């Protein structure tokens, strides 16, 4: 299936989820995430959920990271293509931007080469680890700046599609995708 068709399909599927389903699925994803082999690292990049888009609630993932005393790094949109990464501290102020994305105002910048694990938002993914985001390319751009050994983890309410037919050579596949029912390893 084409990316544009998957965006439409999965955006509609998410819109139809109840708040009870969102909470239960997000909790199941966080619990399943504990069974992935990613916890021996230090720097974890975590997106904060856009509640208006009914994204996976990452607050539970954040609690796990803080409970494991990990360095949590949050993205902020720098311009139309780039993210800047800030270390989450007790003094971090979070504010929604014009797309309703919660992000830090400023803080201690963390270079992409320091990141060990990155949790990535997505709308859909396939059995090869390709993901479909919102189409702006922020994470594709960020991944080009990261070390080649960074662990890429998607979080999804839904199972994998067989194939995203218009994946491109510059698309960076994920290493894992965690759903409420399964851990996909690529």
From TrEMBL:
GO terms for MF: 5-formyltetrahydrofolate cyclo-ligase activity; ATP binding; metal ion binding
Superkingdom per UniProt: Bacteria
Reactions this protein catalyses: (6S)-5-formyl-5,6,7,8-tetrahydrofolate + ATP = (6R)-5,10-methenyltetrahydrofolate + ADP + phosphate
Keywords attached to this entry: ATP-binding, Magnesium, Metal-binding, Nucleotide-binding
Binding site for substrate: 50, 55
One of the Pfam families matching this protein, by short name: 5-FTHF_cyc-lig
NCBIfam families membership: MTHFS_bact
Protein name: 5-formyltetrahydrofolate cyclo-ligase
Native organism taxonomy: Bacteria, Pseudomonadati, Bacteroidota, Flavobacteriia, Flavobacteriales
Gene field: ygfA
